[in-house]
Amino acid sequence: MLSTPALVLAIVLFGLGLIGLLSRRNILYMLLSLEIMLNAAALAFIAGGARWGQVDGEIMFLFILTLAAAEVSVALGIVLQLSHRFRTVDADALCELRG
Amino acid sequence: MEVLFYIAATVTVLATLRVITHVHPVHALLYLVVALIALALIFYLLGAQFAAALEIIIYGGAIMVLFIFVVMLLGPLAAEQERTWLTPGAWLGPSILALVLLGEVGYLIAVGDHTALTVSEPRQKGISIALYGPYIIAVELASMLLLPGLIGAYHLGRRMSKESRSC
Amino acid sequence: MLKLLWLIPVLPLTGFLVLALCGRRLSRHQIAWVGCGSVGAAAMTTAFVAADFLGVFPDRESYHQTLWNWIDTSGMTVGVSWYLDALSLLMVVVITGVGFLIHLYSTEYMAHDDGYARFFAYMNLFVAAMLTLVLADNLLLLYLGWEGVGLCSYLLIGFWYREPEYGTAAQKAFIVTRIGDTALAIGLFILFTQFTSLSIQQVQSLAVEAWPVGSNLAMIVAVLFLIGAVGKSAQLPLQVWLPDAMAGPTPVSALIHAATMVTAGVYLIARMHHLFALAPMVQEVIAVLGLVTLLLAATSALVQHDIKRVLAYSTMSQIGYMFLALGVGAWSAALFHFLTHSCFKALLFLAAGSVIHSLHHEQDIFKMGGLRRHLPWTFWTFLIGAAAMSGVPLITSGFYSKDWILWSVWSSPISHRWIWFGAVFGALLTGLYSFRLIFQVFFGEVRTQPTGEPGLAMRGPLVVLAFLALTVGFLEMPHTLGNVTVFSHYLSHALPTTELLPGMDESSEAREQLAVTVAALLGIGLAALLFLPGSRPASRLADQSTDRPSMTFLQGGWGFDRLYDRLFVRPWFSLTRNPSDMLDRGYEWLAVCAESCHGWMSHTQTGQVRWYAATVAVGTLVLLGLFAM
Question: What is the ipTM of this complex?
Answer without folding.
Answer: 0.89
